[in-house]
């Protein structure tokens, strides 16, 4: 055990130790943390659907009808009509021929990268891609080339310079989870055409949030779904449930059903999470006002923080990071926010590169203007106290 203790001590000294915080209420704009009610601005419940009455009711009805668990892997006894209906709904939402759900987004990325490409293939991966993409690349037998963040010249150069006997695959987050900027998808699909590469987009943070109907980055940019071979997403953020998915052609999905180990060797998602996701997708497609309100709140917070003098990363997503640099300093900032009634976690390496520790605010469509003002004032108090702003 000494080696673990030593490592934990090192992490503590560097400000990189993490601890679990316990929430005793829904992940709503106000959340009870360790007995205190705080304004929550660190959750991924972008559209506020986690505690929406209609979504809750769908989950409850599913439990009454199907019970609490699925009791088997998908290929044995775990496929219910809820799985089939949800997959059809995701395919329609993403404008693809088919879709397949996984136990979470992490597994969907692992499944895609470990089973769809292999020896002789090359994956070109943005340097700021999510850890589950990085882990999927590590798991894959394909070779991996990392290109500079959203840098199309670097991507082109690397495609040019890297011979591939097999398939090339460009993989990117749609919205980058820790920075909140969007991938330059129009340029990526053009580059991919030139080099006959497949494109894989992880729209975990864009689904429900971007696009006229909330379809994600392809919907936002007006890119035909066929130009993106593999669309990954999660049901756990704007969709307010749990699980992940891959959407694409019928043959791709059939291949995954047969060959993706995280799909084949794991128990199917449970009925309530499927029913909740299905109801949430209906709401997302019909209630554009939620998205509009979310984006208006995002602009307001971004403006308020910039006006106060904080270094805010540019972007349009409801992910608003202020860069503080040092991990201990960032932890102290987060602690002071909490003293002022705001819950926003300190994001530190290895989640972000060294020297870029940050407070990452995420908003929900159910936040109010007063919540935004409260967050700004709490930041000003913490920022002045720590000499981050004058
Ligand atoms: C970009 C991105 N991809 C994938 C995931 C994993 O999704 P899940 O939480 O459903 O495993 C996350 C976050 O958790 C993410 O931010």
TrEMBL record:
<feature type="domain" description="Aminotransferase class I/classII large">
    <location>
        <begin position="42"/>
        <end position="378"/>
    </location>
</feature>
<keyword id="KW-0808">Transferase</keyword>
<comment type="similarity">
    <text>Belongs to the class-II pyridoxal-phosphate-dependent aminotransferase family. BioF subfamily.</text>
</comment>
<dbReference type="Pfam" id="PF00155">
    <property type="entry name" value="Aminotran_1_2"/>
</dbReference>
<dbReference type="InterPro" id="IPR050087">
    <property type="entry name" value="AON_synthase_class-II"/>
</dbReference>
<comment type="pathway">
    <text>Cofactor biosynthesis; biotin biosynthesis.</text>
</comment>
<dbReference type="InterPro" id="IPR004723">
    <property type="entry name" value="AONS_Archaea/Proteobacteria"/>
</dbReference>
<comment type="subunit">
    <text>Homodimer.</text>
</comment>
<dbReference type="InterPro" id="IPR015421">
    <property type="entry name" value="PyrdxlP-dep_Trfase_major"/>
</dbReference>
<dbReference type="InterPro" id="IPR015422">
    <property type="entry name" value="PyrdxlP-dep_Trfase_small"/>
</dbReference>
<comment type="function">
    <text>Catalyzes the decarboxylative condensation of pimeloyl-[acyl-carrier protein] and L-alanine to produce 8-amino-7-oxononanoate (AON), [acyl-carrier protein], and carbon dioxide.</text>
</comment>
<dbReference type="InterPro" id="IPR015424">
    <property type="entry name" value="PyrdxlP-dep_Trfase"/>
</dbReference>
<keyword id="KW-0663">Pyridoxal phosphate</keyword>
<keyword id="KW-0614">Plasmid</keyword>
<dbReference type="InterPro" id="IPR004839">
    <property type="entry name" value="Aminotransferase_I/II_large"/>
</dbReference>
<dbReference type="GO" id="GO:0008710">
    <property type="term" value="F:8-amino-7-oxononanoate synthase activity"/>
</dbReference>
<keyword id="KW-0093">Biotin biosynthesis</keyword>
<keyword id="KW-0012">Acyltransferase</keyword>
<dbReference type="InterPro" id="IPR001917">
    <property type="entry name" value="Aminotrans_II_pyridoxalP_BS"/>
</dbReference>
<protein>
    <recommendedName>
        <fullName>8-amino-7-ketopelargonate synthase</fullName>
        <ecNumber>2.3.1.47</ecNumber>
    </recommendedName>
</protein>
